What we know:
This protein is an all-alpha fold. Helices cover about 70% and strands about 0% of the residues. It has 11 helices and no strands. The radius of gyration is 19 Å and the shape is globular. The model has no long low-confidence stretch (mean pLDDT about 85).
Amino acid sequence: MALREMKVQRTRQAIVAVGAELFLSQGYDATTMEQIAERAEVGKSTLYRYFPTKEDVLLGSFSARMGVTAELVRSRPIDEDLSVVLGHVVRAYVQVNDAATRELRAIIDAHPAARAKVWDLVAQEQALLEAALAERLGLDAPDLGVVMSARIATTLAVVASENVLGDHRPLGERIERILRDLDHAQIVFPSFPSGV
């Protein structure tokens, strides 16, 4: 990576970190772009060049993770069972979902425009994951099995992260339990009555 790119990346990370700190400590609405620029020790023009809106700063930590799961799929040994690869994908999703990220997500969910953008990011990440799985399987485009496998993996991570099952153990232990219990879960697939 070129020196200039590294400097840009560090500056972007610093802005996102400062923004997150301010959003969490004083709230999204009370935080201004001027405060972010001052605390990050960058000029306002630099801040607006990297992040045109406050929403973009709020979503910065999520945007920075784009493609992580797809790269993980590509980096796993080619002879590794796909279910194990997807287990690593689920763990990767969970590992980035720490307490601060969940608090930021609560702020995002309270602002409709930011919430819509984060769901766009989720959809993009899902598409990248599906493409990486298809590539790993030698398919030209994702088929139903690839699409469902990717979406089940991400849904498992969401279920564990949001603690839908009321399990109060640490996040890593919750995901391990869900993965272990999945084979015995009574999952019902929708169907249509014949003749409809």
